[in-house]
Amino acid sequence: MTLPAIPMDAILEFLVGLLNTPSPTGDTEQAMTYVEQAVRDLPLSVSRTLKGGLVLTWPGDATRPRALTAHVDTLGAMVKKIKSNGRLELTQLGGYDWHAIEGEGCTIATATGQRYRGSILPIKASVHIHGTEVRTLERKQENYEVRLDAVTDSQEKTEQLGINVGDFIYLDPRVEMNVGFLRSRHLDDKAGVACIYGALLALHRAGMAPLYRVSALISNYEEVGHGASVGIPADVQELVAVDMAAVGEGQNSDEFSVGICAKDSGGPYDLSLRRKLERLATDYTIPYKVDTYPNYGSDGEAALRAGADLKVALIGPGVDASHAYERTHRDSIEATTRLMVAYLLAE
Ligand SMILES: [Zn+2]
Hints:
Number of domains: 2
CATH class of the largest domain: Alpha Beta
Helix content: 25-40%
Number of helices: 9
Strand content: 25-35%
Largest sheet: 10 strands, mixed
Structural class: alpha+beta
Distance between the termini: 12 Å
CATH topology of the largest domain: Aminopeptidase
Oligomer: single chain
Bound molecules: zinc ion
């Protein structure tokens, strides 16, 4: 069997739009609506979990139902406190180091729907003023602040803008495509969401259908550990989580193949399902890298820890500098999408 063509242009267009739609953990509604709109012409039934996850089901043979999942929630921040100088102290959403957002542009979303722009800076940013203290300043929460693009130098003036403790802060993704490379924040896991979209679109355009009923959970709250704890139908037997492969020093993964995860911080993934995916990649000459990921968890584990009894595997595009300014390559997105299509069509 030959696999259907992968609609890379449509996948990348979808992905760039999704990357430019803010969705920090806890504020993912715009992104969910974006995904829902994108799949409206596909033969899917659409439902929502109460906590906001999107479940896309392609009906079919329910003797061995399958599921896919990828998460649309990302890193971000929230207003911790309005400081006496009018600037904002932040609290992090998701796990990252402060250096990863130093100098980044951001948007503050207020209760009334107003948007303010600003930038995230160390409290001692200027070498002219602070000299060597700039270099030695400890990277910790109290040493960072949002400098608002608004005229304010006091807590009262900032409060008058309508900004409050608990408002979400969106990090600028800075999406850019160059000679096949895609660099942006939040490729984890919007690239995975795009691969699922691409696999379903590829089948639909080719007039094909998955061999068994498949449910794709577009989850939220993955970055805080409980994304897919609900939303996988109870009768599903196999779950393929689609999330980034960790590229970097000491890793086997790269930005040009699909990563197949053997083990992460939560332990090994299901061996028989992993072997099946490796065989499919070999049979269809899809470039793949088996790897283990340190300091890493996935929605596959969230489902297992919530008590689901199913086989779980993890595949995904290779992402360099994850949870910082990330990068992948279109080849990795294509390989991941092809493997998913092969899996959906396979016995
Ligand atoms: Zn992820």
